[in-house]
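Q: Study each token:
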Amino acid sequence: MIGSGLDPQLLADRAAYEQWAAERPLPPDVRRMPAPALGLGSFWIARRDVEADAPVVVYVHGGGFRVGSPRTGAVVGAAIAARVSVRILTVGYSLAPEHPFPTAAAEVTLALEALLRHEPAVPVMLAGDSAGANLVLFALRHSGIAAARVRGAALLCPLVDLTDAACASPANSHDTGLSTEVFAAIRRDYLSALHRAGPDDPDVSPVRARLAGLPPLFVQYSAAELLGPSIAGFVTRARAHGVDVTVDRWARQSHLWQRFAGDDPASDGAVDRLARWLRQRLAGGTSVTR
């Protein structure tokens, strides 16, 4: 530990992720604007030709609740903005271990509710990657206004299970995007003994939650990633609870490969499929289940 009491490696990981995101160029004609009313570094991303009252996609970044920011979330957010005529709102939240559960979940829920009150007539959708997808599910389950207004939610490689079962498959243990060691650190840092939330709490492991009433979901993941089996289990549970789920399962990609859009054909293909689903939902179409 050093001055702040945090693990030096965690601090280094945070800095490296921020630097990586800062060096990623925005797609042509996409601009970024601050959203100071929502705090925690949140900002808007949109193409220059998108109208001021265009539909909104609220994007919640991942990073295991421990790293990341609206800037890192903007990497995928900007790739979406380049493909869909929407305004992307990347929201921030306080990180663990300084701010364990339920701080981030509550902050994301409040930010979403603030947006919905501020723009009562605009179509709104949600998206999140990894831990961000976990927070999206929390907000949808705990906010009445969100459940009523949100047209759909895209979950990219969602972290839906913090129990040991999430990484129990030896066949998925070689994921270069998320290791079992990092998974253990995520669970340790996010769960606070003071709050008494265990890894099997439905609010931290939505694979164990009641999911009835959720809006249509788009779940994109790799069968080879560490979280693959738990994501498949979540899809099964959501469908059993009557949720409309469109699944886009890839075969060999690592956790959160979508962040390399612009550099990797598979990443671009994944974001293309996500963009197609978003356009379909905003147009009022029905999902195509795979």
